[in-house]
Design a protein that fits this description.
Elements lengths: L10 H4 L20 H7 L4 H4 L3 H5 L11 H13 L4 H8 L1 H5 L41 H5 L1 E2 L19 E2 L4 E3 L5 E3 L3 E3 L14 E3 L6 H8 E3 L2 E2 L2 E2 L2 E3 L5 E5 L1 E4 H6 L27 H5 L34 H10 L8 H16 L2 E11 L7 E11 L14 E9 L5 E5 L2 E2 L4 E2 L7 E2 L1 E7 L5 E3 L1 E2 L2 E2 L8 E5 L40 E10 L7 E10 L3 H12 L7 H4 L17 H10 L9 E10 L2
Parallel strand pairs: 5-6
Antiparallel strand pairs: 1-2, 3-4, 7-12, 8-9, 10-11, 13-14, 14-25, 15-16, 15-19, 15-26, 17-18, 20-21, 20-24, 22-23, 26-27
Amino acid sequence: MWTIAALGGSPSARALDFTPHGTQPLLQTPLEESSNCQGCHRGTSAPHNSLMPFSSWAGSMMANATRDPLFWAALDVANKDFPGAGDYCLRCHTPSGWLAGRVAKKGDGSSQPANGASGCQLNGDYNDSDGYQMDYGGVGCHYCHRMMPHGPQGPQAQPFAIGNGNTWIDDAGTCITPSGDQYGGPCRRGPYAYVNYKLEPPHGWQQSPLHASSDLCGTCHDVSTPDTDAGPLKTLVLENGTATTRPFPIERTYTEWKRSLFADLIFRDGIQAPSGTPVLTKAQQCQGCHMPNTDDPLAQACNLNPEGSRTGNMPVHTFVGANTWVPAMIKSLYGGSGGLNRSGDFDRTIAWARALLQSSAKVTTTLTAFTPPGPSSPGQIGVRVRTTNLSGHKLPTGYAEGRRMWLNVKVFTPSNVLVAESGAFDAASGVLGEDSQIKIYEALQGIWDATPPGVCRTESGGVKKFHFVLNNCVAKDNRIPPLGFRPAAAGDANGDEVRPVGYSYAETAPGSGELVNYDDTAYTFVLPAGTALPVRIEANLQHQISSKEYIEFLRNQAQAAPAVPAENVLCSGAPGRPFNVGPQNQSRGEFMYSLWANPAYGKSPPETAATATLMAGN
């Protein structure tokens, strides 16, 4: 049988505890599966499906974090690079399975399950509904609604922590509500107090200010190198070669928000606000965009409550970012009538994600130079494109590997003939043409090579590498800052975790330490002789979840010796195996590549976040 140990690695490496902090397996009261919540919290008609908690959550990447084929391909690379690292990944992607001891540690002193860090011991399979002890339901209702601001020993001994899923989960034997009712099992926590106990739910509950705060989101959306029981797995090396002792920052969405004006209580009015930037008068929490409040007259949180009882006071559990590609794949693979039977939920998620992306940025164009072409002589056109970040974090943000945005700028004749272009994407091959003028917004993480003069290596032999758990340096981060972004205060070394690298953004005022939330890019295009006028310049800001290079890397890593076996071989002998859905006779990396190459899924087609048009020569 193929095992983690077969991949090599020292015994000490395999003995590391990748997840020693926060609530540990096993819970005395297991997390209830989300299907237990849908009877009251799922919509029963089309209007309610867009509002109710279960219906709006069910198509999200949170609800399907353990069905995501891209995640599983990356997990195998992590385990191959550092045996056992999958424990750290699965903690966030399957809280129910991890807290139940079905990943890498039991929590009761018994032996670890074979290949638990590869997810082989999880209950259920990809297209099972979120039933009892089914671990493929992602981040479920009970995980968030049992989260506490500190551990059972109190805030001093077990304080709240941002990052890496180091959460505290309520595991009390009873819940006494503010009205004095007593229920068996822990309380469900949320932001509501149920004044005069109106609409009080028929289960244990407790008001929790944490659930109205971005801090709740920060528990999973700041990600560092695994914080093992022996310290950080990898520590940050700066681009000048300075070795720090700080954990390597893999993802910093929460910190990006925290250092922006969106996190401030009151900070500016409409006169001060830059053009195209939201006017902010109070702190804007993550929930404001990712769980938007609804004024729908039918809004209700529970089917037991009257319609309209939560109008104006109902955060919709959309949980979308900019990912439309993976939800569409999961819908096709597992979401239909033969599986999850919630295709409509995925359709809503995709529409919401597209709409949120299109509210995240603004693009404007300015003509800087123009020489008209003659009958036998070429002309020239100069254009400045300004991209403004309207979101509450960097643009783009989140998981950096393979994710990027870029400007696609085209010049057309009056008859729509394309005469010049920068940032062309070939949908047939999945290749982004990296011409000399292209602007790509991305974070490139790598492994420090100390060989003089020292460099952060992100590729080998001209091939890009994405070694998630081995990276310890940032070669590039030119992602656009959010409004009022302050990467570092005086003496704040942690600013190294979020500041631009290999690129610079001007301060809003000299010495302010606050960076502008826009970027200007200059383009010069040749207009062939005889080009008809006026020409039309289109600038489109494109967002892509996974680059061709990333997908190929995942496949190649699965195939490279020692090769990762097909999933049913990898998990041979585990309960519920073999599967008849998912990779089956392919490795997860090969399966992900086959999905990417399938014309039905479009090679991670870019989504347009913003666009602008300019005419010249008229």
